[in-house]
Write a structure and sequence with these properties.
By secondary structure, this protein is α/β, with parallel strands linked by helices. It is 38% helix and 23% strand. Bound molecules: S-adenosyl-L-homocysteine (SAH).
């Protein structure tokens, strides 16, 4: 039995069944046994692969996007370039390399990375060691400095814990994680009804709520709205609030039961972009998109970038570039990256157009 499962059983024995968001946050971020604390989940040998790990083009285009946003914002100095959940640091490394060609922007930036996993912070430090841009690490967004900022979050919001609520004949109940007679983790419902949440959905419906994501969006949108800059969120998710659950466990590039091996598989939920957009607007900011990842990357010129890279490539490399391009912007199925992933940006009210988002 894993150490984390042992600890979860103890907590549940003492306190009773726990909420899903508490379970997720222990499984992902427990300082000793959590998923992100104990392993490097990315790449072919890991559990999943993210866009920056598929191709350098992804981070490069985001670096150039940031340079253009900085210009549109009037070129403030300093400009903080912030990444939330930078993983291996690949996106930031590719972005910094590309934006180096825009000298005035390269001179103006200060990099801030928000990361909780000590292990991934180490990987990021190594990956970014060769850049002479000032760099700072923070455990929480509350620690970020004030002032104009361009904030990038790729596959960050999907990793934030969610809660599930079920509509029964007697009212709303919160879904909890309990221990069954065999000692296995299992889902149950809260004993007490929770506050009604104002949604009118049929009996039996389950709704998934990302309160932590919403709160974070509210804080970030307030910051961007009053201090200037832009926030770019890229993630898999949906654009109309819906019922039903999207919680998933991911291991070895496949789906697993989210309760089966806590700490040993990634746990994520699809991002409710509509809910995040409502938070940002309520905080007084302007929302751009969401558009599909395919639309966003195509508008930034990913096809042209691929052509350029292919000019100096050997045949095998050229094939790899084409395959990566196809993977990032493929829209042939609903689950294809170019379709399932969305890009959404948040800016101050007075910024009317933004590269990548047709106005
Ligand atoms: N952006 C990277 C990694 C995505 S995985 C990429 O595209 O490859 C999610 C990342 O968010 C990991 O680096 C994880 O450690 C970090 N993370 C998860 N929850 C976090 C939290 N609450 N605060 C800060 N970082 C978090």
């Amino acid at each position: 039995m894993s150490e984390l499962l042992r600890e979860l059983r103890e907590i549940i024995a003492q306190e009773g069944p726990i909420s899903l968001d508490r379970y997720m946050s222990l499984a992902l971020s427990h300082p000793r046994y959590g998923y992100y604390a104990t392993r490097d989940p990315f790449g072919a040998t890991g559990d999943f692969i993210t866009a920056p790990e598929i191709s350098q083009m992804f981070g490069e285009l985001i670096g150039l996007w940031a340079a253009e946003v900085w210009r549109l914002a009037g070129g403030p100095r300093p400009m903080r370039l912030i990444e939330l959940g930078p993983g291996r640091g690949t996106l930031m490394a590719d972005a910094l390399r590309a934006l180096h060609s825009v000298h005035a922007f390269a001179d103006a930036i200060e990099v801030h990375l928000v990361e909780t996993s000590p292990r991934l912070i180490e990987a990021q430090r190594t990956k970014l060691a060769s850049f002479d841009t000032p760099m700072h690490w923070h455990a929480r967004i509350e620690e970020l400095p004030r002032g104009a900022a361009i904030i990038v979050a790729n596959e960050f919001f999907d990793a934030l814990p969610v809660q599930h609520f079920v509509r029964t004949a007697e009212g709303w109940y919160e879904r909890r994680v309990a221990v069954d007679a065999d000692g296995k983790l299992t889902f149950g419902l809260s004993q007490q009804a929770t506050r009604a949440n104002g949604l009118s959905v049929p009996e039996g419906s389950l709704v998934e709520i990302g309160s932590i994501a919403r709160e974070m969006m509210r804080e970030l949108a307030k910051k961007i709205g009053s201090e200037g800059g832009a926030l770019l969120v890229i993630d898999y998710g949906y654009t109309q609030t819906q019922t039903g659950e999207t919680l998933q466990g991911v291991r070895n590039h496949g789906f697993v039961d989210p309760l089966h091996a806590p700490g040993e598989c990634d746990l994520t939920a699809h991002v409710d972009f509509a809910a995040l957009a409502r938070e940002a607007e309520a905080a007084g900011a302007r929302v751009h998109g969401p558009v599909t990842q395919a639309q966003f990357l195509s508008a930034l010129g990913i096809a042209e970038r691929a052509q350029m890279l292919k000019r100096n490539a050997r045949p095998a490399q050229a094939e790899a570039i084409d395959a990566a391009l196809k993977r990032l912007i493929d829209r042939s199925r609903p689950a294809s990256m170019g379709q399932l992933f969305k890009a959404m940006a948040v800016t101050p009210k007075n910024m009317h157009a933004l590269p990548g988002f047709a106005s």
